[in-house]
Amino acid sequence: DGPFVVAVDGPAGSGKSSVSKAAAAKLGFAFLDTGAAYRALTWFATQRGIDVTDAGAVIDAIADFDYRIDTEPGRQRVFVGETDVTGAIRDPEVSARVSAVARIAEVRLRLNEIFRGILTGDGHDGIVAEGRDITTVVAPDAPARILLTASPEVRAARRAGELDGHSVAEVAAQLHARDHADLQVVDFMTAADGVTTVDSTDLNFDETVDAVIDVIKAAR
Ligand code: C5P
């Protein structure tokens, strides 16, 4: 038997990254942030001077894309080759371009292969993977599948709190634009069959982590 897989999807600013990481740490599970891989590929292509709307060029770049991550929840560094891109992939420039990379079907296929290798790999009893299509495409057979949502207002306010010097209105507009683009590719706003919705709008961070852990425990 492979590791126990927990799949978590949701929109930008739903808190799924920090909540999933905290839940993984509490359970002694590994953690996989799939959005970080899309971001790292976006960073890598941009670094090479590639226009991310040029699908052919992005697909060609994957051949040299040496993506390395640490799945230990407390040590989330992301590397492309020898370069630590942990901070760079959160840059608003990357956020603004990543949807163009994520809509390339061949990119999704190739990254999904990497993700499935990590999920089924050894070295962990369980793993929490979060993104947009984990419950539906990457790991539809996972025993625990969760859609983490929050109202658009709450998501924008939380994200604005993370990004210094940006107004809530500005952040709300960026989140809306990215969600709109991403929704053309995969529906992460509706829970698929068998997926449990956790709405964090009226929950604080710890309450959200507990709600997610309750779903995981019920599935174990
Ligand atoms: O989760 P995060 O906001 O870091 O994801 C960055 C981007 O990566 C998303 O806006 C989306 O375009 C893409 N993504 C995706 N499928 C996933 C995870 C992320 O398309 N499973």
From TrEMBL:
Its main location: cytoplasm. It is an enzyme of class 2 (transferase). Belongs to the cytidylate kinase family. Type 1 subfamily. It catalyses: dCMP + ATP = dCDP + ADP; CMP + ATP = CDP + ADP. Transmembrane segments: none annotated. The gene is cmk. It comes from Humibacter ginsenosidimutans. Pfam families: Cytidylate_kin (PF02224). It comes from the Bacteria. Its EC number is 2.7.4.25. GO terms for molecular function: ATP binding; CMP kinase activity; dCMP kinase activity. One of its GO terms (biological process) is pyrimidine nucleotide metabolic process. This is Cytidylate kinase. Keywords: ATP-binding, Cytoplasm, Kinase, Nucleotide-binding, Transferase. Signal peptide: none annotated.
